[in-house]
Amino acid sequence: MGKKVTVVGAGFYGSTTAQRLAEYDVFDTVVLTDIIEGKPEGLALDLNQSRPIEGFETKVVGATTSADGSGYEVIAGSDVVVVTAGLPRKPGMSRMDLLEVNAKIVRGVSENVARHAPDAVVIVVSNPLDEMTALTQLATGFPRSRVLGQAGVLDTARFTHFVAEELGVPVRSVKTLTLGSHGDTMVPVPSQCTVDGKPLADVMPADKIDELVVRTRNGGAEVVALLKTGSAYYAPSAAAARMAKAVAEDSGEVWPVCAWVDGEYGIAGVYLGVQAELGATGVRKVVETPLTEPELASLREAAEAVRAKQADVAGL
Ligand SMILES: NC(=O)c1ccc[n+]([C@@H]2O[C@H](COP(=O)([O-])OP(=O)(O)OC[C@H]3O[C@@H](n4cnc5c(N)ncnc54)[C@H](O)[C@@H]3O)[C@@H](O)[C@H]2O)c1
């Protein structure tokens, strides 16, 4: 049977994710949904008309849904569901400012996903990311390994881009890593960063690394401040689409994602940004990375910061 992926929310993040997924040409069907009548249908029609030019056969299906669940029949049989529904930040806002409004949206979406696509792997991108991932798992009742969030692929890509730009080298020469939460307690991991296989610390002064770490942590806000009317979506959609592809292809690729941590790094019972092996069942396993003492301490701090907030989402 051909693969099917659903993207919930046809805003900037959702529509660019649907485009990338369709252009991979590995799915039979990409479903795009939104509550704004006609928007997902119009975008789907437009994307389908790009098929002869871009040369892909994947069909894009647009569907308007409502809170009562009408329209959701179209997502039945989805292998993967990407949840992008929710408000983005405005300049000066933190991701946590979106908590209450997006919790209502994400809870409603999750209940409908559980009803209509009970076997799907769910990839959450709505912000605040760590909390919305935890809420999606609660509201769907899915096994924890089948619900994960997108943050680390994007944050790592931003870090890699900044390092490559600074050194004037191709992005493919650079490997970086960020763990922790998608927010103030993001944990860039310089000890695991390399340029052409050499440790980053050997090719860049410590103060420059620190500067790029700070820029990475504020990477989303930097784009929001420039755009003024919304948040980033090209790099974010690339991240979510790659994760969905890894799940659909059961690839076993290891990516930094927001995953349920159960004892790794001495941390348990929380959704946190860690490296994980992805496959058809979602997170096959969390992959522990060697960390320096300060990096491990920062990761544990990040876990405690998100743990308290994740406990609160049960009541939202
Ligand atoms: N995880 C990350 O790294 C990351 C990066 C960028 C943005 N984001 C988040 O992704 C989300 C979407 O961002 P965007 O730029 O696409 O925003 P957007 O405003 O362009 O699109 C959001 C869409 O969601 C739709 N929507 C609202 N309620 C819905 C519901 N119940 N069902 C279906 N659709 C619904 C809206 O109608 C809108 O079209 C935001 O919460 C943003 O903060 C996350």
Description:
This protein has helices at 12-24, 39-49, 51-54, 99-116, 129-140, 152-167, 200-203, 206-217, 219-227, 234-248, 293-312, and strands at residues 4-8, 29-34, 59-64, 80-83, 121-124, 147-149, 174-175, 178-180, 186-188, 194-195, 198-199, 254-262, 268-279, 282-287. The protein has 316 residues and is of the alpha/beta class. A hairpin with a 5-residue loop joins strand 12 (254-262) and strand 13. It starts with a strand and ends with a helix. Helix 4 runs parallel beside helix 5 (129-140), helix 6 crosses helix 8 (206-217) and helix 6 crosses helix 10 (234-248). Helices cover 42% and strands 21% of the residues. It has a six-stranded parallel β-sheet with strand order 3-2-1-4-5-6, sandwiched between helices. It is globular.
What structural keywords apply?
11 helices; 316 residues; 6-stranded parallel sheet; binds nicotinamide-adenine-dinucleotide
Give a brief rundown of this model:
The chain is α/β, with parallel strands linked by helices and 316 residues long.
Instruction: Classify the secondary structure makeup into a structural class.
Output: alpha/beta
Bound molecules: nicotinamide-adenine-dinucleotide
Note the main sheet. Answer: 6 strands, parallel
Q: pLDDT below 50 for ≥5 consecutive residues: which ranges?
A: none
Main β-sheet, spatial strand arrangement: 3-2-1-4-5-6
Q: Mean pLDDT, rounded to whole units?
A: 96
